[in-house]
Amino acid sequence: MIRLSRRAALSLPALLPTAAIAETWRPGQPVRIIVPAAPGGTTDIMARLLGQYLQSRWGTPVVVDNRSGAGGTIGTMEAVRATPDGRTMLMGNIGPQAIAYSLFRNLQYRPDSLVAVANVIRGPNVLVVNPSVPAQTVPEFVAWLKREDGRAAYGTSGLGQSPHLSAVWFTQLTETKAEAVHFRGAGPMLIDLVGGNVQFAFDNLTSSMEHIRAGRLRALGVTSADRSPELPDLPAIRETMPALAPYDVSTWFGLFMPTGVPADAVNGVNAEVQTMLGLPETRTRFAQMGGVPAPGSPEDFANFVRSEIQKWGVVIRREGLQMDAT
């Protein structure tokens, strides 16, 4: 385990003009992007899209290396242990890079083990209910939950994941209760939700979209601060009730490198990502996935990650959730 001072947490080298850095820094050797998840998910898709782009820019092979397991912590440790030369990156996400620090008792890395390089994409979760639930709006849903008084059951794609904690924070803010039923991924959870074995869920918009459009599930609101361009008539949950005004949840996926990486590598990779995010084809592809580009400097991303760690720490401690990293 790499131990550094708290002061170095998500530390950032001084930024140089991105255009100059993009012109001067190149990896010179093959690059590896570690994905702390199985192939086929959003983390993997984003790593492969970015890897193809960087390979075309640098003329250097960029290999995606899937290291799944333990909620993303196994792949993260692989990145933390890598040589900090700019040729090993981690396509991180909200789970292992924000939620995990409060959720796991025995985590072997800390925020100061990684340098935030560039956020890439963000997107909302969505509150969906089985059509049998007698609620057309979020206030009606909250009233229904209170009448049910803990008897309602909701599905999650995994304990401690973003969709689960979206529900936890929602019930905290609305002072409601419901029973969590944890599944191994969104696929089996959605089968039981459509079948009525659980009554509602918070799910990634991407995986629920087909069921929403087909009328198999009723969407009541998105978890992000703003409405989704994909469903512009669906409200953001935070706009539906005063108690939910602080509510803002977005899944996100971004690049990290092991602490100690040179400044020119951090800024050079960030500059390349910003160029990719500005392409019209990138915006189109992200929209198909229910997300939007998340541009910004390394410092912007580091500040964002710190705020996410703090936010989810409060929610997790209030709920009393704790797990062992395996």
From TrEMBL:
CDD domains: PBP2_Bug_TTT. Keywords: Signal. The keyword Signal applies. Residues 1-22 form the signal peptide. It comes from the Bacteria. Pfam families: TctC. Belongs to the UPF0065 (bug) family. PANTHER family: BLR1237 PROTEIN, TRICARBOXYLATE-BINDING PROTEIN. This is Tripartite tricarboxylate transporter substrate binding protein. It comes from Roseomonas alba. The lineage of its organism: Bacteria, Pseudomonadati, Pseudomonadota, Alphaproteobacteria, Acetobacterales.
